[in-house]
Specification:
Elements: H1 6-10, E1 18-23, E2 29-35, H2 38-43, H3 53-60, E3 64-69, H4 73-87, E4 103-106, E5 114-117, E6 126-128, H5 134-148, H6 155-158, H7 166-169, H8 183-197, H9 201-217, H10 221-240, E7 251-259, E8 262-271, E9 274-281, H11 291-302, E10 311-314, H12 318-327, E11 333-335, H13 340-378, E12 386-395, E13 398-408, E14 411-412, E15 418-421, H14 430-446, E16 455-459, H15 462-474, E17 482-486, E18 497-500, H16 514-548, H17 555-565, H18 568-573, H19 576-580, H20 587-599
Parallel strand pairs: 7-10, 10-11, 12-16, 16-17
Antiparallel strand pairs: 1-2, 1-3, 4-5, 4-6, 7-8, 8-9, 12-13, 13-14, 13-15, 17-18
């Protein structure tokens, strides 16, 4: 590999704003950055002294540099963000996608639904957040149900109710589905819930107090009592908060902590003066990275597409945080903690970040110990960084599904799990099913498209493993290590046999072995993933088949039923009265459908 000639390259770099990409061997993108002045910024990487050992390591791997000029620094920022997300360069500090943050939504419906939400924003709906995690959202929804009694059911259920549900009976919903509350009264509850979610709790209490007094003056004592109970419920919710600033303010607390080579950025959220919890994150690409760089990278990625509070409290470079926000076109008051409550928030966020780092380090040590033990037990040349495991699930040959789960560096990697629907085999033929899934998975590896694992685990005995050996030989992957995991006597955990493809006698590891525990975890995950897929496929096939064979239910009526109840489960759960309300379904046919599906 010829050395990169930085001096010659820099002669042609313009002074314009833009984005630069550091490219390493095999066209791997090492780093993506933006610059107000490309020439000055790119030149800074090739001075005698660089900012950190991490950057020095990156520079030593550069084969070439690519640049894209833009009309402004703002355009460069947008392009940089898009490239980082699509390319995931090794030396960039990468955080989880912003879309993973949950929200509370009030849907755009005549009677709005209170719901948990992730993903894109639907037009007309109201969204409140983001929240630090799903627990905070679900707890908030639970509390809002107690106070404002808004509906949480899906539209398919709401549109087909004939009587109030259990939530109405336990005083958690006002049952607008069956007209137990007027539209105007429900709208009033929605307005109060909106104020509450915006942190304007004093307005909520004042409004309810005013209504209570008005009802009392009108001698409507039952209504006045209901408003009194609602006020108490609001106050109980407020008193439950474990940290309260005493002000109706929205604040983000941002800190970064480094320990043992790991950096953790923690975002704590205060909304309406109430601490909703925090969200510690361990980004990739932060080895030997200064905490300031990590925090500023988080600010740039997190607030690029998300709403932000009017105030941010941080102990690290408030002025630089403010500058990054201004580049994003966002404005907020960014300050160091001043009052006691802010110092308490920061201290709690720092402590949680430290706990997160220590937990990650402990898990990493445990994972490495288990991989080392597995290498020793299986006599592998090195610890297997990527392990793939396969399992087959069916019921007497019906709805056969195969699973492939992936373990990377001792940690299950759910984003790379795959299920395969097995077709065109004799029902119940596990060997043929295993042959099919392994062929479909590894023909991509053989063609150079897929990622090659270091070890393949196959749930089963010699027969299933033999299928794997045959498939690997046909695809030119004879050197791919594979092991069968056979269940022990009575399927008792700890008695598993590890079957080898090279004819070695089966290996029975000690039940306390770290290697066996890793194999069991991966095998059990493959089994769980296969069986959940199989059950879903079987249930859909059985209910769908029942609908198809009910006299009088043709394709058009079947489509109407599924659309009205939001799917097969909704049709099965519907009452005869619910079914009668579907266009084209008579009472006689509704009774027949209900009877047939109740048997399944």
């Amino acid at each position: 590999m010829s050395e990169f000639d930085a001096k010659a390259f820099l002669k042609g770099v313009p002074d314009d704003p833009g984005v630069y990409r550091m490219i390493g061997p095999d066209d791997v993108v090492l780093y993506v950055g933006k610059a107000k002045n490309l020439k000055k910024r790119v030149s800074s990487y090739f001075r005698d002294k660089v900012s950190s050992p991490r950057i020095a390591m990156m520079v030593s791997q550069i084969v070439r540099v690519e640049i894209t000029t833009t009309r402004s620094e703002a355009e460069a920022l947008i392009l940089e963000n898009n490239l980082i997300k699509s390319l995931a360069p090794r030396y960039n500090i990468l955080f989880r996608d912003d879309k993973s943050y949950p929200y509370i939504t009030l849907t755009a419906h005549e009677f709005p639904r209170l719901a948990f939400h992730r993903g894109g924003f639907a037009k007309g709906a109201k969204f409140f957040g983001p929240f630090p995690g799903s627990v905070a959202v679900r707890e908030s929804i639970h509390l809002l149900q107690k106070v404002f009694k808004l509906r949480t059911c899906e539209n398919a259920v709401f549109n087909n109710r004939s009587r109030p549900c259990l939530l109405h009976q336990i005083n958690r919903c006002t049952a607008p589905c069956v007209d137990e509350i007027s539209k105007s009264d429900y709208d009033a509850d929605v307005r109060l819930a909106t104020l509450f979610l915006q942190g304007r709790t004093s307005e909520v209490v004042n409004d309810l107090t005013r209504k209570m007094h008005a009802a009392s003056d009108a001698l409507a004592f039952e209504a006045a009592g209901a408003f009194r109970d609602q006020i108490r419920a609001v106050q109980q919710v407020l008193h439950r908060q474990y940290v309260d600033s005493g002000k109706e303010e929205d604040v983000d607390i941002l800190i970064a902590v480094a320990e043992a080579g790991q950096v953790c950025v923690n975002l704590a959220m205060v909304r309406g003066g109430r601490h909703l919890g925090d969200r510690p994150q361990l980004p990739s690409g932060t080895n030997d990275c200064p905490v300031e760089d990590a925090l500023l990278a988080f600010v740039e990625q997190h607030y690029a597409n998300l709403p932000m509070p009017p105030r941010i409290v941080t102990t690290i470079s408030p002025a630089k945080v403010r500058a990054v926000l201004e580049e994003l076109g966002k404005h907020a008051t960014v300050v160091a903690p001043r009052v006691e409550i802010e110092k308490g928030w920061v201290e709690m966020a720092e402590r949680n970040a430290e706990v997160t780092i220590r937990a990650r380090l402990a898990a990493s040590d445990r994972s490495q110990n288990r991989l080392d033990a597995l290498q020793l037990a299986l006599e592998l040349p090195e610890p297997p960084a990527r392990i793939e495991c396969f399992d087959i699930s069916h019921t007497m040959g019906e709805a056969t599904v195969a699973s492939c789960v992936v373990c990377e560096n001792g940690v299950m990697k759910r984003s790379e799990y795959r299920r395969y629907n097995i077709k065109d085999i004799t029902p119940g033929d596990d060997y043929a099913a295993m042959r099919q899934v392994l062929t479909r998975r590894y023909e991509k590896v053989a063609s150079g498209e897929g990622v090659r694992p270091d070890l393949v685990l196959i749930d089963g005995g010699r027969g299933q493993l033999a299928m794997g050996v045959d498939v690997f030989a046909e695809l030119g992957l004879e050197d791919l290590p594979s092991v069968g995991v056979a269940k022990g006597e009575g399927r008792k955990p700890g008695l598993e046999s590890l079957i080898f493809a090279d004819g070695r006698p089966p290996l029975h590891l000690d039940p306390t072995s770290a290697a066996l525990h890793l194999v069991q975890e991966i095998r059990d995950e493959a089994h769980r993933f296969a069986i959940t897929g199989h059950r879903a496929k079987r249930g859909k096939a059985r209910i769908g088949s029942k609908l198809e064979h009910i006299p009088g239910v043709g394709p058009a009526r079947r489509r109407k039923l599924l659309a009205s109840f939001g799917g097969l489960d909704g049709v099965k759960a519907a009452t005869i009265e619910d079914l009668c309300r579907v266009d084209g379904i008579s009472r006689t046919l509704a009774e027949l459908i209900h009877a047939e599906l109740s048997r399944g």
